[in-house]
Structure formats: structure tokens, C-alpha cells
Amino acid sequence: MSEIIIRELREDEIHLWDDIVAQSPQGTIVHEISWLRIIEKHTNSNLHLLIGCLGSEIIAAIPLFSKKKYFLNGFYSPISGAMIQHLGPIFPNYDSLKQDKKEYYFREFCLKLDHYLNSNKKSDFILIETSPNLLDARPFVWNRYDVTPKYNYVKNIEDLDSTWNDLKKQIRKNILNCEKNDVEVYEGNLEDYNFIIESLSRRLSEQEVELPPSKDYFLDLYHKYYPDNLKIFMAKYDGNPVTGIIATTYKDKISIWVGATRTDTKGIYPVDLIQWKIMEWGHKMGYKYCEIQGANMPSISYFKSRYNFDLEIYYSAKKENRKVKIALQFKKLYGVVEGLIK
């Protein structure tokens, strides 16, 4: 079999990128060129659209963001500050391939990508977090990456009655209680979108954590993806908005992304009603799956597990060279390195 070659997509080939994403089971809305460009703009990084070619055929691709701080050069997929959990490599028509070809493509692509980043780009640090539809982590292990499993929750919502019955009994009671108390869930607009971002910013501020991207980042995403791929679900109580969730849609999945801040509605839990209304809406619109992102902290996973979705796995693969390891030993440089590798 011919050798896989890694190269950057040329300017006259950029129009091919979203087709590669659409043809890949691992492709997500955040893989699209528009979302990637918005990330690049607001994270002060450089976007590299790398492809793996077998002859004239593109068999793999990965978006990587590079950022240099002082003497350290990092490559990320995704980069910190974008508030997205995973990105990583994609493989067109992967599900139609036989197992030996799947493994060959992935194994050789990872091998050549690692060599390309180390030799051509002089990388000091690499962080790749894969999409949930890529279950194989061995090629990263074989290339001496530190690999950590991570998780989201996902549910097939084609049978809505079954989805309802699978909810924890207390969740069903909370939903019915919200409806009894006239909590209204509706699809929001820009004003509601800003309400969610402001609420999220305040919640993180209380935890002494700054909202990573600028608010302009969220506005750019809104203007590009609303209403087709960016959905806003708001809860109103006593005539006032109390909380909301921003979701994304792509292919056969609706994904619960950010929002759902706590409310002062004692004894009433509008977040549970919103989550259920998102499932209802997704089912009505023909989506097969509903995804709840983020199940990697005990407190958060406990809250989200009550919906009784299934776990979906993805991987964080990290590699650092000797320069980074030595730098970490010096306290005076710790802040520099920490800012690069997080």
C-alpha cells in the first residue's frame, strides 16, 4: 500500500474541508471551517488544516491550532479558550471501511502526523482530544502519547416514551412540577442568548473562574450558526427568564452545550424541564441522538447521570518533549508552561 503523506490544505482546496467533515463519522459542527476560523480569531492562535493523502485520495484530516509562548511551541485540537471538549482527527467514510483498513489509516496517519509536527513544525507540546465516534486510542499510545479516557452522555431519542421512562423518577416529578407551576420553555433569540452567556459568566466569576472566550466569540458563533445549528432554549417563570441552554445540531445529533445556570426558584427545577424539552424537540425534528456534554467531574456527572443516558467515550492524548519537562521543574517558569499546556 502507498505511503500516507501529511500536508496542509492549500488555499484553493479550503472549499473541500466541510465536505470532508460531513463525510466523516467523527466530524462535528465544531470541525466546520467557519467555527474553526472563529476559534482562531478569538484565541490568538494559528489554524492548520492538515490532511493525510494516500495518492490523490484524502483519507484523514485534523484541524490543529498552534500557539507559541516564549520558547515553547504548542499544537492543539481543540485549543483552550474555545469552550469545546473535543475535536481531533476525522476519517471520511470510516464506517464503510473494513477493520484492517480503518486500523491502517488511523495508525499510519497518527505516525506521520507525529513526525510532521515534531520534524516540520518543531512542536514542544501536542494535545488532541478526539470525537466520541473514534473509539480506538491505540495509535496515540503506540506513538507514546499520554492517553486519558473522557466521557459525555448520549441517548437514542427515537423512542420518546422509552426516553421518558428511563429518566430518574425524581426528574420526571421535577418536570411535571414545573409544568404544574406554569414554567414555560421556549426557543430564544439573541437577547436570550446573551442572557445565558451573562449568567454563565457570573457563575464562573463566583467560582473565581473567568469565562475563557470573549463575548464576541459567542456573538460570532450566533451570527454564523443561529438558527440552523445553534439552538437556544429558555425557561420563563412568573413572566421572567430564569435560565437557559445553548445546544448545537449537526447530522443526526442535538448536543446540549453550555448554560443551565442555577436558579432561585426554590422547589422548582426548570433545568430539568429544559433538558426534557430539548429531547422532545430533537425527537420531533428527526434527530436520532441527544448528547449531554461533560461527564468528567464527580459532582457534574452525578447531576447529569440522573437522566440515565448512556456513556460515550472520547480520548485526550497529550505529548510533551524534554524541553517542556525540564521547564516544569523550574518554579519561575511554571506560569509560562502552565499557560501553554492547559
Automatic annotation (TrEMBL):
Pfam family, one: Acetyltransf_6
UniProt keywords, alphabetically: Acyltransferase, Cell shape, Cell wall biogenesis/degradation, Peptidoglycan synthesis, Transferase
Coiled coil: none
Gene Ontology terms for molecular function: acyltransferase activity
Record EC number: 2.3.1.-
Top-level EC class as recorded in UniProt: transferase
Segments forming domain BioF2-like acetyltransferase: 168-296
Domain of life (superkingdom): Archaea
PANTHER family cross-referenced by the UniProt entry: LIPID II:GLYCINE GLYCYLTRANSFERASE (PTHR36174:SF1)
Entry similarity comment: Belongs to the FemABX family.
Name of protein: GNAT family N-acetyltransferase
